[in-house]
Structures are given as C-alpha cells and as structure tokens.
Amino acid sequence: MTSNQTMRVRRASADDANVLATLRHEFRASRATPDEAEHEFTARCTTWMRERLTDDAHWRAWILERDDAVAGNIWLQIIDKLPNPGVEPEAHGYLTNFFVRSEHRNRGGGAALVSALLEDCAALELDAVFLWPTDQSRPLYMRHGFRSADDMLARRRGDASHAR
Question: What pTM, to 2 d.p., does this model score?
Fold first, then answer.
C-alpha cells in the first residue's frame, strides 16, 4: 500500500447487500466452479443479505475499503444460547465469509476486519467466537487470540451412516 492510500473498515448496512453479494460470489467462485449463474446468485444473495443486515438481526458484516473501493468483508452471526441461572454469557459468535480481494491482501486490511468484528463481540459479551479456518488464514486468527478447541464435537451431513 502506498502512503497516499486510505483504508477504512465500516459496519455494513442493508444498503450494502448488493456489493456484499458480489464479494460472496467472488469469494466462493474462487474456491469451486459455481452451479448457479452469477446474476441469479447475486440477486438471491442480495435479498438474503438485505433481510439480515437490519439493526435487530443476528447477522452483522463489516466492509474493508481502500480509497473508497470495496476490498473485502467479514461476517458475524450471533447465536443465542439458552438462558442460564448463573453468571455466564448467553450468546456465541460465528465468524464467516471473511474475504479480502487478492490485490489487497497482506496490507493490514484483513487484520483490521478481524479486529472490528472482535471489538463488537467484546461489546456484546459473547461467550465464544468460532470459525472454520483455512490453513492459510489460521496464523491471522491465532494472532488475534484464537486457539484450537478440544471441547467441541461436530457431526457433518453424511456422518449418520456411521452412527450406532
């Protein structure tokens, strides 16, 4: 990044749904060949995102901008826990859809996105924040305090055939 470039992370709103849907397509299409036409996916995804980026929704997103151009995003889903009679936070956070366009990587923007999300998690007093990292993203998350969790079990679709 040259010294005259500006970087900004801001909370997304429903008005950002279309650009966020475009980023989502770009992110996922880079990992696997899409089965859905880009314009169809973007329209469907824009509707989904617009409905979830309201003030009272359990979804939040942040946008990374460089010189007023969208460079990346990160999403948080707030998951309510059942109420507890003791002192224990009653929500978790799921970090997902973290994507920075390749030409903007390794310039501090990804770290700024993770920091913005984690600041919100702290303000919300979330009990835990979890995610599924790639090998490439794992060091970034670990620099932000994430650790491997040994106290969690997972069952994926298709695993039922092995259950007894």
Answer: 0.89
